[in-house]
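Hi everyone, sorry if this is the wrong subforum. Our group has a chain we'd like a structural model of before ordering constructs, and none of us has done structure prediction before. Sequence below.
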Amino acid sequence: MTKTGSSRIRILILAAVCLVNAPAAGQAAAPAAPFEVRVEADEIVCYPPPYEATNNGSGMFWASGSTQIVRAGGRLFVSAFEHVAGCAPLNNARWALHECGEEDWRLCQRDPKQRTREPSPLGVSHSGRLLMSVNPTLAPWIAADGDTKRVGGPARPEFLEFDPARPAREPRHLVPSWDGEPKFTEHSYRTFAADGSNGEFILFQNVGSTHSQWAFLDKAGAWKTGKLVWPEGEDPRYAPCHDLRARVNYPNAILSNHQVHFIGTSPYNIWKRIDPLKTETWGREKWGWRMRKIHYAWTPDITTTPFAPWTVVADTLDGVPVARYARLRFCRGELPPRSNPD
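Answer:
Right subforum, don't worry. Here is the predicted structure as tokens:
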């Protein structure tokens, strides 16, 4: 593969082996490590562009909790992030799908015409479906030059479904049936999750500073869409962009048997240890990237039940981290009683 930047993406294949050591006769059982971890492979997949090339505020791992490496049908795939040469930011990147071959990684295909700002995460089902979340821009091409300002524009989120056995073939386009006309842009902050056992997928994508639009694709290929409204914010005078609600950014989502669990961080320009009028402490360009709270919401059934009210899992507004008790786990049947009622 041709080197296109100073950084590189490496894949570490880890093997965890359980250890069960029986003591020799007459010897006391010594405590043994429950398992051992070893590296079985360390491989270079591709060379993503340096940050200065795209200069659009995103990068290879901007997808945060959404994975860009999956195994489908016994094959290993990676969704890479590439620079579109000659195009001005913000929409000057594209996806590229790589597969681990018998001897080396190979490029299956890259987006031949669409442009975007952020990486494109992957999702798989146990039956072998391979989907990618993409967010192509609808804005026109702007040639890059020394005086060009960074420009965004509207976008059209969709899923691409690849054939894992023939990943070089053109993917199938799956476009959600949205309620109304959500104002999607290149700043998607999206989260993509899969329920592998049931072959179902869900996407969350931010719309402005008010909510995340979600799209659920069930095993029969039917869509259901809705909104997850952000929690109420603090004093809007000190909120990023003076928003009334606290956006939940860089989230993680889990989808299982129609249950959805959503958790992420929220920025605030308020911190009790500083004077809120000292705007130099607000973060880069006063955008408020001071992650002061972790918010969590869930629904027992995304197809029938609205999300429960937001829960603050952690809070550092007072300067001292405060973690609130939250049991976030899947259970079959009733949840067992709490061991500590306080």
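For your construct planning: The longest strand covers residues 35-46. Confidence is low (pLDDT under 50) at residues 1-6, 325-342.
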